[in-house]
Amino acid sequence: KQEVTQIPAALSVPEGENLVLNCSFTDSAIYNLQWFRQDPGKGLTSLLLIQSSQREQTSGRLNASLDKSSGRSTLYIAASQPGDSATYLCAVGTGGFKTIFGAGTRLFVKA
Amino acid sequence: GAGVSQSPRYKVAKRGQDVALRCDPISGHVSLFWYQQALGQGPEFLTYFQNEAQLDKSGLPSDRFFAERPEGSVSTLKIQRTQQEDSAVYLCASSFSTGYEQFFGPGTRLTVL
């Protein structure tokens, strides 16, 4: 059974710091992996989607990597800003139609 | 174009009542997902539609939960005889097809008293 874990559960950093969020999964037979952000009381906003054949994806200050063999993905945020404060969720697409989410990392960027 | 919309945004139900939650996906999106999100947790998969076909309903917690997408666009999640443990945010997502990026609606917050 696929399980997705995100560490740390919460993170507080000063503005301008570069940071890494971690996501691990137990079954390497994944279809894809997607990173989302969720603001309080809101739905999820897609950040990056990595297909199983890819190693990384970049969008602006965000870079996501995928290492299927070790069951890990990281989301790198460069030059963090207070507006980056949110919960970040990773989601693994399984071989079927099910998507499995981690519990998320709550990020607070201090001005 | 418009994103995924859900209605109502908030629903309060008395225990035992039936509720219906609506999802309008992005036009042309083949895939539609329903999730349940408890406070402080990631979304939990409920069910998946490809057009009008419900291909996976393994995440529905009980036979009180029923979902449909009769014309392959709008979807409804129905919960019969609501219980307090059904209180959660129900999220809908759509994607162009299987394996593509998922786009989420704002969710419906259901509170069962």
Q: Categorize the overall geometry of chain A.
A: globular
**Number of DSSP strand runs of chain B:** 11
Helix content of chain A: under 10%
Low-confidence stretches of chain A: none
Helix-strand string of chain A: EEEEEEEEEEE
The biggest sheet of chain B amounts to: 7 strands, mixed
- Element-level helix/strand string of chain B: EEEEEEEEEEE
Residue stretches of chain B low in confidence (pLDDT < 50, at least 5 long) are none
Structural class of chain B: mainly beta
User: Treating each run of at least 4 consecutive H or I residues as one helix, how many helices of chain A?
Assistant: 0
* Percent range for β-strand residues of chain B: over 45%
Greatest chain-chain contact: A-B, 24 and 28 residues
* Quaternary organisation of the protein chains: heterodimer
* Cα-based radius of gyration of chain B, to the nearest Å: 13 Å
Largest sheet of chain A: 6 strands, mixed
Distance, first to last CA of chain A: 41 Å
Plain-language structure description:
The complex is a heterodimer of chains A (111) and B (113). With 111 residues, chain A is mostly beta strands. Chain A contains no helices and eleven strands. Helices cover 0% and strands 58% of the residues of chain A. With 113 residues, chain B is mainly β. Chain B is built from no helices and eleven strands. In chain B, the strands form two sheets. In chain B, strands 2, 4, 5, 6, 9, 10 and 11 form a seven-stranded mixed β-sheet that branches. A four-stranded antiparallel β-sheet of chain B has the order 1-3-8-7, with no helix packed on it. In chain B, β9 (88-95) and β10 form a beta hairpin. Chain B is globular, with a radius of gyration of 13 Å. The chains are: A mainly beta (111), B mainly beta (113). Chains A and B meet through β4, β5, β9 and β10 of A and β4, β5 and β10 of B.
